[in-house]
From TrEMBL:
Entries under InterPro entries matching the protein: LRR_dom_sf
Cellular component GO terms, alphabetical: SCF ubiquitin ligase complex
Source taxon at top rank: Eukaryota
Protein name: F-box/LRR-repeat protein 15-like
GO BP annotation list: SCF-dependent proteasomal ubiquitin-dependent protein catabolic process
Length: 245
């Protein structure tokens, strides 16, 4: 009986090409186990080309940013790769609530979700991610201006994400209540705030004090003054605090 050695592959495509060539060259049934595939900026791949990805069944990381993959094709690929932990993509037409639910159902082991480039999202759409208990890294969408309703929904999401290690927030109103919820994320290592309106800026130190694993704290275009930042840098030298006005 023949035994096939199994290899773990990380494959990065550096220029536009077709998936037919990729799969034809690298895919061998029962021999190769692909864990990661990066097709970022492969604009020339058409729907037929993406269909060849359905031959893979062990993917855990798939980068489809800046490609023209169709939602239906993405679903078929995910159906064959139930161990998917990270999917990075930017659809021409943003998926709405029902489509997001289907996406989550196809990725029960999802650990990383990047939504920062999505448009026309509502806070209701984000609610569906409350059922993703394994999330380690979350990049929420950028809204055009601070939205209080979006901020209010964090009280449902954060208690579900106890494994959270990286959290990126854009254009929200961060209330004292949500600050308290963030301090309960004991595995948090990186917190990134972009254009966030802090209701009580001087209370942000509680995150530095109560998140024991925190390594990086970014406050980009937030309403925070230099005096507070300098004070925190002295009191918490183990945390890299980055700011930009």
């Amino acid at each position: 009986m023949c035994k096939f050695e199994r290899y773990i592959y990380t494959y990065k495509v550096y220029e536009t090409c077709d998936c037919v060539g990729i799969i034809g060259e690298l895919y061998m049934p029962n021999t190769y186990l692909f864990l990661e595939l990066n097709l970022d900026y492969c604009h020339g791949i058409d729907d037929k080309g993406f269909s060849y990805l359905e031959k893979l069944n062990g993917l855990e990381h798939l980068n489809l940013r800046n490609t023209s993959i169709k939602t239906e094709r993405l679903y078929k690929i995910l159906q064959k790769n139930q161990r998917m932990r990270e999917v990075n993509f930017k659809l021409l037409v943003c998926m709405r609530n029902t489509a997001l639910i289907q996406f989550i159902n196809l990725c029960p082991n999802l650990e990383v979700i990047r939504l920062e480039n999505f448009i026309n999202y509502t806070s209701q759409d984000i609610d569906v991610f409350a059922d993703c208990k394994n999330l380690r890294k979350v990049y929420l969408p950028r809204f055009q201006c601070p939205i209080a309703d979006y901020s209010n929904r964090l009280h449902r999401l954060l208690p579900s994400w106890q494994r959270l290690e990286l959290f990126a927030l854009c254009c929200i109103v961060l209330t004292d209540h949500n600050l308290k919820l963030l301090t309960q994320c004991k595995n948090l290592k990186q917190l990134q705030l972009y254009w966030v309106k802090l209701v009580t800026p001087d209370k942000c130190f509680t995150i530095l004090e109560q998140c024991p694993k925190l390594q990086e704290f970014r406050l980009i275009h937030c309403n925070i003054n230099d005096c507070l930042i300098n004070e925190w840098k002295e009191r918490y030298p183990h945390v890299s605090i980055c700011t930009l006005e």
